[in-house]
Design brief:
There is one protein chain. It contains three helices and five strands. With 110 residues, it is α+β, with helices and mostly antiparallel strands.
């Protein structure tokens, strides 16, 4: 399952943040992990231009994909890099894509 959000300005983030949080919680993503994903998305809003956010939740992880326009300075997104299992930064022309994977906690019964 996935959710898609398009944000053309920082003014739209409060509504998008609530939508993202609700979507994750409805998919039984733990509250603390939901906070990490939302915080990571918020930090990535520093990407230039309109931003597209796609979140996918599976049984094992949550993958956050953020696409913006323009360069990212070296050392950017430090909280995002530190809070994820996998971090990838892809530059294609004037587009920058951030891919971050957050593992879901394993069930006690697994």
């Amino acid at each position: 399952m996935l959710a898609e959000l398009a944000i053309s300005s920082a003014d739209e983030w409060p509504v998008a943040r609530r939508s993202l949080s609700k979507w994750l919680l409805r998919r039984d993503v733990p509250e603390l992990l939901t906070c990490d994903v939302v915080m990571a998305a918020e930090e990535a809003l520093g990407l230039a231009g309109p931003v597209s956010i796609v979140v996918e939740a599976s049984e094992t992880d949550v993958v956050l994909r953020i696409v913006g326009h323009g360069p990212i300075p070296p050392g950017a997104l430090p909280m995002l890099r530190a809070s994820v299992d996998r971090f990838e930064l892809v530059r294609e022309g004037d587009r920058t894509t951030v891919i971050a994977s957050f593992p879901l906690p394993r069930s006690e019964s697994a």
